Amino acid sequence: MKLTILGGGGFRVPLVYGALLTDRAEGRVTRVVLHDLDARRLSAVTRVLAEQAATVPGAPEVTATTDLDEALRGADFVFSAIRVGGLEGRAHDERVALAEGVLGQETVGAGGIAYGLRTVPVAVDIARRVARLAPDAWVINFTNPAGLVTEAMSRHLGDRVIGICDSPVGLGRRIARVLGADPREAWIDYVGLNHLGWVRGLRVAGRDELPRLLADPDLLGSFEEGKLFGVDWLRSLGAIPNEYLHYYYFNREAVRAYQQAEKTRGAFLAEQQARFYEEMRRPDAAALTTWDRTRAEREATYMSENRESAGAGERDADDLSGGYEKVALALMRAIARDERTTLILNVRNQGTLSVLDTDAVIEVPCLVDANGAHPVAVAPLPDHASGLVCSVKAVEREVLAAAESGSRTTAVKAFALHPLVDSVNVARRLVEGYTAVHPGLAYLG
Questions:
Q1: What is the C-alpha separation between 30 and 20, in angstroms, rounded?
Q2: In this predicted model, what pLDDT tens digit does every residue of 152-207 receive, in sequence order?
Q3: Which is catalytic among the residues 17, 115, 190, 244?
Q4: Does domain 2-86+97-165 match CATH 3.90.470.20?
Q5: Catalytic residue among 36, 76, 93, 166
Q6: Which coenzyme or cofactor does it need (predicted)?
Q7: Which of 64, 305, 311, 414 is the most buried (most CB within 10 A)?
Q8: Is 76 annotated in the active site?
Q9: Is 165 a known ligand-binding residue?
């Protein structure tokens, strides 16, 4: 079975390959094709993968190419993890927004809109190529903003594109761990959009254990989200929000923390990864060791500004392991071998949330089998959550419309309608600022 990884020179690709190395069952991935526009990055990542596979008999064969059509032909699965504009683009997204006093995070608010505007046209081109060159392939999208990009691709690939994210998985794992439950045996009632969802229940053997957590202040304040949001706010909500909702519930504090930071997250990662790829130019560099060291630093500093503004302290060691690669492997196995499982995924609504239309991509538990991912029925969201979901989905639709039409006016509308952008004039200046620094937004006329 052939897996094509788009963004194959990306820093986190070894996580995906490492997960593949643990799969020894029949029908597993035997060929991995890495595609990237940067041959130097491809070479560096290929070296890391070679060291990972050195002691694993029968490891999947790895090849690399800068030819997209060649990479896609004959693929059974396509894993999309591209970053249009690179980390330098992310740093621009952050700086332009913060200069206007609004959030520049890569998937939330102004930064997420800017990232989406330059990513959607590229993702749509990829979707069209997949439909032509590998019509039977399943596309697993990890490209951010994941829900928005998955919806853009679904207009050309239907339900054969599925978005994944590690945030809901990590959140459910943390809640189960605090409650003394096995995450593999827990049903997580999680509903929303990507980076905009809530855990409303965690059932073990048919019993919802979340009320027990919400009733115990010490227990509730003992894990990441309790520290980040505060016990009183979580009890008020009666649910545990995805960590990215901190940008909404504590927006002023988050913006202030980012403005006061020595450097933005994008700038930090750009410098860090530049050092990694530069070091990998040395033929004698220990590829896997260098990558491991860089990854540990990256994970430990994740959302550090939010944790600092909330007084949440350092991340727990158990939360430094990521997890999206395990979701990707579980998804591929379920489809390829009809190994039925339940995963929280980004899929088309299909009537699951009544406040959204059928084609809106949402993030909910799905039953996965050989025919793909099927969203399960969920209870309606409370009004405050429904309002936020509908508002952000409306913004996503304006981003898709702007990307399709090239309308600068529609792009301004997308920014202006976002809950975290508080002025039409700010929206206009944001579009001016972003088009000035991003060549990829030159299509906005």
A1: 9
A2: 999 999 999 999 999 999 999 999 999 999 998 999 999 999 999 999 999 999 99
A3: 244
A4: no
A5: 166
A6: NAD(+)
A7: 414
A8: no
A9: yes
